[in-house]
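step=encode ok
step=design start
structure_in=
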């Protein structure tokens, strides 16, 4: 029997979706800090097959593999699978860090 999944969108990340198994809730499978950053959840699709995810078969398989391994997976439309993290949102932007460094040097 094929598993069913549901997708949520988050208020803080437009066009980014969370995929979990249909019988689970985000609060039970996604770490609180990531769920908090994702923002207020709204259900996008309540019961879908993997083939209804907006990716080719390889992308669908990567999402389902991440869901089985971590309990959830994020993807950004169009066509970017983020896995169990919200991409590089927690990583410092090197351009902004370099600009900040130059501003600090200029002020001293």
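sequence_out=
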């Amino acid at each position: 029997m094929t598993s069913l999944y549901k997708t949520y969108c988050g208020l803080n990340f437009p066009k980014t979706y969370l995929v979990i198994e249909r019988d689970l809730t985000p609060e039970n499978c996604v770490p609180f800090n990531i769920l908090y950053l994702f923002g207020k959840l709204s259900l996008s699709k309540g019961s879908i097959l993997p083939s209804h995810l907006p990716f080719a078969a390889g992308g669908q398989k990567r999402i389902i593999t991440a869901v089985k391994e971590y309990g959830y997976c994020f993807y950004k439309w169009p066509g970017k699978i983020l896995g169990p993290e919200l991409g590089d949102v927690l990583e410092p932007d090197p351009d902004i860090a370099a600009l900040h460094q130059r501003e600090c040097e200029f002020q001293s």
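step=design ok
step=annotate ok -> The beta strands are 5-10, 13-21, 41-48, 73-76, 80-83.
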